[in-house]
Design brief:
The complex is a heterodimer of chains A (about 300) and B (about 375). With about 300 residues, chain A is an all-alpha fold. Chain A has 13 helices and 2 strands. Chain A has one domain: Orthogonal Bundle (ABC transporter involved in vitamin B12 uptake, BtuC), CATH 1.10.3470. Classes of the chains: A mainly alpha (about 300), B alpha/beta (about 375).
């Protein structure tokens, strides 16, 4: 009996560790998308940004030997892609959803094309913080090997919430997102605020991509992203455009994704297809339960519904 | 006015480019027709990238080995999905490159794609890697080739059985189809022939290339105390690297992954397509009829074991070498009764045996005793 209790604890710790590992890219992409959407624009291209970030991050780390340079390179790629999105969207009669889908396809295609020579080589990976060194159990040690990027993301979430609520720039972003006309009346340049928000959002998504290639699972391959960039968009809605909720939601999605492998590895052999589908089922449930034909979602930026 | 001029210029430029393109295309086409008598044209199609440390790379290595035969013209195309794309790829190889023999290497290329294109080109041979060809149903210019890689997996299982201290092995598999189940069973039966207490825990990821899920499966298996990990997915890179990072042993699959895990790599099961492809090239150049079915294991040279890692004990090496020798001389039969499945049902009665070539084994839908896992999700 003691043994089962111990293994239950192990599962719990393993799932938490897995949630952090798998959830980190969700966290960065969703924070980026949250920022962009709060300025009143949807960037569906973040899946492409994620892949480009993963590819350039890996390439830069391989060439320079420094994973941190890789992270920066991934972020800058995201800035460029975000800039392209913003530039296109501020033209007359351009639909931001269509631009986003185009950039998603462009980003993944370009990453596949340019990433060809990067499949084989092994680049320097990001280091982990060994927070579990107090424990004798290798399981706990492994679960608490937490990447620095996750820590940064976890700190960024409340920082971003503070930014929206209390800072002058945060107010600009929110105003532009709620009512472009009001922002214009205030003398704000709506397009510029949205451009900066999209570029910063792209930066975060690019960094999320570098986590995939430079830490977990590590390495560059064409199957690296299984739609994390797209699921993060749903996750932002689930999190009600609140950065702190984005953190919780990312961990929840991460945990859902680890459920399938974890349950099988402890010998629970039924229903693995069902558990593998858990993150997608979760996405669907969220979309269904949060939609309403009579009212807008609470917390939704007002300009988001105005698709040109 | 000015804009028109620019447009006109652009048009001339485009025309020029087109003419040059046509000329090169024709130039490429004419001599290739003339060579066709002397040169053997072979075309390879892969579903993924050429250098994935896995299945596609194993075929690419086979194709590359043809480079030393100067009378062979080998072309290839990677990342071709199992859709109408593969039909286009085949037709372009046949019509533009003058290919006489096509090797669409992915499982899903066969039906309906090869079956649709083959009747249109009766002079071209279509050889599919996998083993779905049926003399009664399918065209004569179609065939299949495949290796009994489970023999090499069995040898890896022997080494794993010797090296495991916890008695728990891990197997990360894409889906519960017969080829995969056969590898899982061989690995487990071999390890249990060394130590009957050994178990293998299987995680099915649900797809051939899902790096995040593979890494997660590897981590959770290692958390549960397994100390030798192997896999059957398209690219074992992530699995082998994760095992190395966590300090446990690993056995490779498809190609040699020793460089990915210098400390913990034991051995692995590898394809040896070079042999197969060179044999086919010989047959065409000599004009011998190409057999519709080619099968083989160690003995025929279609599969090999990766070189042993540094950590492998002398005893394990000795036993594994012995096992390989008995596969070579044909005395080893893996599926010899009594064998129970992991629900306790006797699947092969005492005294009964299924040889490697037995078609019954190609419909495997059970997991052997000692495997923790289920074929039904």
């Amino acid at each position: 009996m003691n043994e089962t209790e111990f293994s239950l604890l192990n599962i719990l710790i393993a799932v938490i560790g897995g949630a952090i590992r798998v959830g980190t890219p969700f966290l960065f992409v969703s924070l980026g998308e949250c920022l962009t959407e709060r300025s009143g624009r949807i960037n569906l291209g973040l899946e492409g940004t994620l892949m480009m970030g993963a590819m350039t991050g890996y390439g830069a780390s391989y060439l320079s030997g420094s994973p941190w340079l890789g992270v920066m390179a991934a972020g800058m790629t995201g800035v460029i892609l975000g800039g392209v999105h913003a530039l296109l969207c501020q033209q007359q009669k351009v639909n931001d959803i269509a631009v986003g889908i185009a950039l998603m396809l462009l980003g993944t295609g370009l990453a596949f094309f340019l990433g060809k020579p990067l499949i084989q080589p092994t680049a320097a990976h990001l280091p982990a913080l060994h927070l579990g060194s107090w424990s004798d159990s290798p399981v706990i040690q492994a679960a608490l090997d937490i990447n620095v990027l996750f820590v940064m993301g976890a700190l960024l979430a409340p920082a971003m919430a503070w930014f929206f609520r209390y800072s002058r720039w945060g107010l600009y972003v929110r105003t532009v997102g709620e009512s472009a006309d009001a922002a214009r009346a205030m003398g704000l340049n709506v397009n510029r605020v949205r451009m900066y928000s999209t570029m910063a959002g792209g930066f975060l998504a690019g960094v999320g991509g570098s986590f995939l290639s430079l830490y977990y699972p590590g390495g560059w391959s064409e199957g690296l992203s299984s739609g994390q960039g797209l699921m993060a968009v749903a996750l932002v809605i689930f999190a009600r455009w609140n950065p702190v909720y984005c953190l919780y939601a990312s961990l929840l999605f991460g945990a859902a994704a680890t459920l399938g492998p974890t349950l099988q590895s402890i010998g629970m052999t039924w229903g693995y297809y069902l558990f593998h589908a858990a993150p997608y089922v979760l996405t669907l449930i969220i979309m269904i339960t949060t939609s309403s034909s009579t009212r807008l979602l609470s917390g939704m930026p007002g300009q988001l519904s105005n698709v040109k | 006015m000015k804009k028109n001029e620019v447009d006109n210029k652009r048009r001339t430029l485009l025309k020029g480019a087109l003419a040059v393109g046509m000329a090169t295309a024709l130039g490429g086409l004419l001599p290739s027709k003339a060579w066709a008598k002397k040169k053997v044209g072979m075309g390879f199609i892969y579903v993924g990238p050429r250098d994935d440390y896995g299945y596609n790379q194993s075929h690419y290595e086979g194709k590359s080995s043809l480079a030393k035969l100067d009378w062979v013209k080998a072309v290839d195309q990677e990342n071709v999905p199992e859709t109408i794309e593969v039909q286009k790829a085949m037709e372009s190889m046949i019509n533009l490159d003058g290919i006489q023999i096509v090797f669409p290497t992915s499982f899903g290329y066969f039906d309906p794609h090869i079956l649709k294109i083959a009747p249109k080109y009766p002079d071209v041979m279509f050889l599919h890697c996998g083993g779905l060809w049926d003399a009664k149903k399918h065209p004569k210019n179609v065939g299949s080739y495949f290796g009994y890689i489970d023999e090499a997996v069995y040898v890896a299982g022997i080494v794993a059985g010797h090296m495991s201290k916890t008695g728990k092995l891990g197997f990360i598999a894409a889906m519960p189809i017969p080829q995969v189940l056969r590898n899982i069973n061989n690995f487990t039966l071999a390890a249990r022939s060394v130590n009957p207490k050994i178990t293998t825990t299987v995680v099915f990821t649900g797809g051939w290339s899902l790096p995040v899920k593979e890494a997660e499966a590897a981590n959770s298996l290692i958390d549960q105390g397994i100390d030798v990990l192997t896999c059957h997915v398209d690219s074992p890179k992530v699995v082998i690297e994760t095992a190395e990072k966590r300090g446990i042993y690993s056995c490779g699959y498809h190609t040699n992954q020793a460089v990915l895990a210098p400390k913990g790599f034991l051995t692995g099961a590898q394809w040896n397509w070079s042999k197969v492809y060179q044999d086919y090239a010989e047959m065409i150049s000599k004009g011998t009829k190409i057999p519709n079915l080619v099968r083989g294991g160690f003995k025929e040279g279609l599969v090999t074991s990766s070189p042993y890692g540094k950590v492998v004990s002398a005893k394990a090496k000795e036993q594994a070498d012995k096992m390989r020798a008995s596969f070579m001389n044909g005395s080893m039969v893996v599926y010899k009764g009594p064998i129970k499945d992991n629900t306790g049902r006797v699947v092969i009665a005492a005294g009964k045996e299924y040889k490697q070539t037995d078609i019954w084994l190609e419909g495997m839908d059970w997991l052997a005793e000692g495997v923790i896992g289920s074929t039904k999700g």
